[in-house]
Amino acid sequence: MIRTTMLIICCAVLAIPGIAQNTFACSPVGTWYGGGDYKYIITITPNGNGSFAMRGEGAYSNAAFGYAGWTTYSGQLVSVSKKRYVSHSVAMFTTSPDQQPPQNSYELDAIRGWAEFAGCDNLNFTYDFYAAYFDLSKMPFTDPPDLNYLPPGGIKETYHRMPMKCPVCGLLSQSTTHVGQKH
């Protein structure tokens, strides 16, 4: 009886790491950095029930594309499985430098992506819809867009979670030399 009990306990202890490895408990909540050709900071906050608010801020000037003003990308991320999410985001742009731009100067861009974890600290996005609406009475993702920006094969981006620990912070406080890039 004792031998059988010990054998069961040993088997259970040996099986726990394998069971734990097959469970997935990563959360998209946090601040992420990265992207693809264009770099972004993404902030994801919980809404509840597997839904998250998402905000993406680009690290590039849209003036190079002829825009005088623009917003960040704002949207939602919704869980579709333990490791996979779908996102829908929009951003608004204007080509007018006027304080109150004319109606015909606006553009609403809409983008849909699928996010999957590659470990808890890396998130890969694959976008399958990226389009512009010049008529703001149209509903993004519902009405056909005025312009398709999606390249063949879609867009792929990788984001890394901003760490919440700082092993180098103590080292930098001891140094008086600037370690960043010189501009």
What would you say this structure looks like, in words?
With 183 residues, the protein is mostly beta strands. It has a domain of 99 residues: Quinohemoprotein amine dehydrogenase alpha subunit, domain 2 (Lipocalin, Beta Barrel), CATH 2.40.128.120. Helices cover 15% and strands 42% of the residues. It has two helices and ten strands; from the N terminus they run αββββββββββα. It has an eight-stranded antiparallel barrel with strand order 1-2-3-5-6-7-8-10. Strand 1 and strand 2 form a beta hairpin. The protein is globular, with a radius of gyration of 23 Å. About 7% of the residues have low confidence.
| CATH fold description of the domain at 24-89 and 110-129 and 152-164 | Lipocalin
Low-confidence stretches: 10-22
The largest beta-sheet arranges its strands as 1-2-3-5-6-7-8-10
Biggest pleated-sheet summary: 8 strands, antiparallel, barrel
Mean pLDDT: 87
CATH top level label of the domain at 24-89 and 110-129 and 152-164: Mainly Beta
Give the radius of gyration.
23 Å
Give short descriptive properties of this protein.
183 residues, mainly beta, Lipocalin, eight-stranded antiparallel beta barrel, 2 helices, globular
Short summary:
This protein is mainly β.
Blueprint (SSEs and pairs):
Elements: H1 2-22, E1 30-35, E2 39-48, E3 51-58, E4 69-70, E5 73-79, E6 84-94, E7 106-117, E8 122-133, E9 147-148, E10 155-161, H2 169-174
Antiparallel strand pairs: 1-2, 1-10, 2-3, 3-5, 4-6, 5-6, 6-7, 7-8, 8-9, 8-10
